[in-house]
Amino acid sequence: MKKWLPLFAACLGTLMLLIDVTIVNVALPDIAADLGTGLSGLQWVVDGYALALAALLLILGALADRVGAKRVYVAGLAVFAVASLACGIAHSASSLIAARVLQGVGGAAMFATTLSLLHATYTGRDRGVAFGVWGAVSGAAAGLGVVLGGVLTDVFSWRWIFFVNLPIAVVAIAMTASVFPASMRRADRAVDLLGMLTFATAATGATFGVIRGGERGWTDGPALSALVLGGAALLAFWFVESRSAAPMFPLTLLRNRDFGGTLLGASGQTFAAFAATPLISLWLQQQLHMTPLHAGLAMLPMAATAFVVAAAFGRLLHDTAPKWTIGVGLVVVGIGSGLLALIDAGSSWTALLPGFIVIGAGIGINAPALVAVGMAAVPPQQGGTAAGAVNTARQLGLALGVAVLGTVFREVADADQRMTQAQFVAGLDAALEVAAAVGIAFGLIAFALFHRQRMVAGAERDDRTAVGAR
């Protein structure tokens, strides 16, 4: 059993960081009431974490190569613990958002290094087992998050969804320090500081601009400035990376249609499947007056269906052309979001079940293939960069999705006024219709980009890693 202690340490950190993507969703109404914040503040509670993950995954992955994955992982655990404490004691929306961003920094350091640590620690069949267990933990995190968040908020308070991380982080730090060997460092590897800065600025500017524009209007000066800054930073990132001798993200990868399709599939999946869940949680609790626990259980069928479909058909889907797994799977997610948009002012929580089940089926089809196809599409030495890019695309899709759907909801529901059930549902339906359109459109584009009928042979090499990086 001693040989599996490194796997346990890696899974502890992974479970924490991925649970914290969804654990806040069912606590949002209590947070809003306690801290006196509105929809835009709640959007940033969700987006601050997702955006930091997205902006820093590639950056901290590159840093880990230079200073050692073990050091970066332990530092990430420590930052995550401190940030969780700050979240739990926050007494204003702004302090909670700042702490959530710091949590995302720690989470990115952990997410960028766990697979690297496992790859360096295990070999042969043991490596396959380790990746498989890590993948099962990653897949279960979304479902555990909404239920655990409901239990802790119901029994204690919303603050305990953050305090619970502290003992877990302490155990993970102690175990990591003792069970992982020292990681190999590449001190001679150049750090692409300009690439890191421009990428983080582009992601932050775009997300802030969308949220601010939806709240204050699209002629608002700070909103327009943020969007212009984000666009300029994106152009600067393109310019810097195309001329860098050691780019953080080699732009030549985007010439590969399979890799481009994978990035679209990853960002479209989280946008279409998960970006509306904060709004759904608010509907369940504020309009239907469900408890946080019951709201969490009501949203569990999506994660449960995804887990069952991926487990039951994962081996079969591995041999299926990616246009069917990634492209069509994303279309199925979009159809499920469209089914969610059929709820009306008289609907109960059971009206969500058909849509959640269809979305879960689409995720179960789509998710296991994403990193496998992305990594198979690039040379072996760029496999880590490819995996990091796919996970970055996921988090960007979520961050921008929450911002866009919140803006749509606010415009349709007239969220500045006290809303009736009918107004709330009208805004929610409009947001879900946008999510459905994104899922279907991105799925069709990805389907067109995948011009080969089967994955190249390299996919077999990273079969288990793909499942692990869900």
Highlighted features:
single chain; 470 residues; mainly alpha; Growth Hormone, Chain: A; disordered C terminus
Structure description:
- The protein has helices at 5-22, 28-35, 39-67, 69-88, 93-111, 114-121, 124-155, 160-163, 165-179, 193-216, 221-243, 257-274, 277-287, 292-318, 322-340, 353-376, 383-413, 421-449, 458-461, 463-468.
- The protein has 20 helices and no strands.
- Helices cover 79% and strands 0% of the residues.
- By secondary structure, the chain is mostly helical.
- The chain folds into three domains: 1-182, MFS general substrate transporter like domains (Growth Hormone, Chain: A), CATH 1.20.1250.20; 193-245; 249-470, Up-down Bundle (Growth Hormone, Chain: A).
Percent in strands:
under 5%
**Morphology:** globular
Q: What structural class do you assign from the helix and strand content?
A: mainly alpha
Mean pLDDT across all amino acids: 84
What's the N-to-C terminus distance? Answer: 26 Å
Helical residues, percent:
over 70%
Radius of gyration: 21 Å
